[in-house]
Amino acid sequence: SELHFTEDHEWLRTEADGSVTVGITAFAQNALGDVVFVQLPELQAYDKGAEAATVESVKAASGVYMPLDGEVLEVNPALDSSPELVNEDPLGEGWFFRFKPADANAVGQLLDQDAYDRLIKAQDDN
């Protein structure tokens, strides 16, 4: 299914059951460098913009923010032992968490691929 994106370089994919999988984009993991640790969210409700997870790389630690109001249902256990999956497969095996959005329609109001590509290009131009 199609991806949506946030200006914080997270991607969202709506699953068949209505839950939403979240990860960081290829652009984000490339900027971070080698990921060495991921602190995943608790299975609880978070407000949009709340820091849900933390990614630590050899360069820096960076927050991963809740893209929309919702409740975290599941986290990716593979990241505990293999944080490098974020670098190797950011849009696949390196996903962070799944959540149930408070408003199912809100995902569609986020950036689409074209809009996200423009955002990255604008940042590269700076």
Protein traits:
126 residues; 22% helix; alpha+beta; single chain; globular; three-stranded antiparallel sheet; six-stranded antiparallel sheet
Describe what this molecule looks like in 3D.
Strands 1-2-3-9-8-5 form a six-stranded antiparallel β-sheet. It has a three-stranded antiparallel β-sheet with strand order 4-6-7. Helix content is 22%, strand content 34%. With 126 residues, it is an alpha+beta fold. The protein is globular, with a radius of gyration of 14 Å. The longest helix has 13 residues, at 113-125. The termini are far apart.
Question: What is the structure about, briefly put?
Answer:
This protein is globular. Helices cover 22% and strands 34% of the residues. It has helices spanning 26-32, 78-81, 85-88, 113-125, and strands spanning 3-5, 10-14, 20-24, 35-39, 45-46, 51-57, 61-65, 70-75, 97-101.
Secondary structure layout:
Elements (H helix, E strand, L loop, with lengths): L2 E3 L4 E5 L5 E5 L1 H7 L2 E5 L5 E2 L4 E7 L3 E5 L4 E6 L2 H4 L3 H4 L8 E5 L11 H13 L1
Antiparallel strand pairs: 1-2, 2-3, 3-9, 4-6, 5-8, 6-7, 8-9
In N-to-C order, the SSE pattern is EEEHEEEEEHHEH
What is the count of helical runs? Answer: 4
Main β sheet profile? 6 strands, antiparallel
Approximate helicity band: 10-25%
Strand order of the largest sheet: 1-2-3-9-8-5
- Shape annotation: globular
Structural class: alpha+beta
Distance between the termini: 32 Å
What proportion strand?
25-35%
Low-confidence stretches: none
- The overall pLDDT, averaged over residues, is 96
| Number of distinct beta strands | 9
Rg: 14 Å
Quaternary assembly: single chain
